[in-house]
Design brief:
Helix content is 33%, strand content 12%. Strand 4, helix 6 and strand 5 form a beta-alpha-beta unit. The two termini are 12 Å apart. It is built from twelve helices and ten strands. With 325 residues, the chain is of the alpha/beta class. The strands form two sheets. The protein has a seven-stranded parallel sheet, sandwiched between helices. The protein has a three-stranded parallel sheet with strand order 1-2-3, with helices on both faces.
Length: 325
Amino acid sequence: MLRAAGCELIVGVNSPAELLEHAAGADALLGATYRFGVIDRQTLAASAALRIVSKYTIGVEDVDIDAATELGILVTHCPTEANWGGVAEGTLALILTLLKKIRERDREVKRGGWRSTALEGRYVGAREDGYAGLTIGIVGLGRVGRRVAGLLAPWGAQLLATDPYVEAQVFSRHGVEQVGLAELLERADVVTLHCSLTDETRDLMDAAALGRMKDTAVLINTARGAVVDIQALADALDAGQLAGAALDVLPIEPPAADARIVALGDRILLSPHMVAANQGGTLRAAIPWATDATLAALRGELPEHIYNVEAIPRWQERFAGDALL
């Protein structure tokens, strides 16, 4: 599509130096997660013609948003349901794997065991006999958090959520009780993280936050690895302050073979940042979105799904109506 529109493409970046070289003179940067850190101010300023960074992903933490905004460069992203819906479904799979001890039961049968009381799971939903059900705490009530709430609703579990950027009526609409983070951590049997990675949420789950959780609770992270202080989590699991954790994301990916978090046995369930990688899903649905955004910007038009909307006035001064195609 890009070539058909007359674009010259440079495909593939294997280092920050190579990105910086290719960015010089570029009109657009297009791609998924940048594996070498952050697309920084130096890279963004390498071309006076750069008008858009178009991401296939939902998250944009790998772009210096403040620098892009100051430079009048639009950053677009692709919040496709194929992506965030897959994260929500995978989150439930992780929750149930921990609570129902799926791994342990499989291993027990394969080694000749049968029906050990150590393999008892936990009942999630409320029952008519008076059992109240577990309390699920959702940190971040955006697209993923809302879908998680919707998927859990038929189970009858008690749902809590915290998100300072979401209006009160959204909590009510999705059947969750609005609470602060501290209360959520203290009450929840399951804490599942669905917030963006920002300066505000980096190491959100540190030793103090983990210390607020019940020692019978489990932590799920399908957001971004750096939202959790990984060493503090390992400490908490080692000390029995938490019953378990499931992580699809880690601060350093992949982890080193001798990383402490890898050696915690059944206390930790690890996944290779693939919770949204499903047949019929993953980032494929984002390809036309990101391509259309790039082509719109190159025509001098505002694209859809702009993340840094504050950059629009400066961008319009620079590029509005300036069609390259």
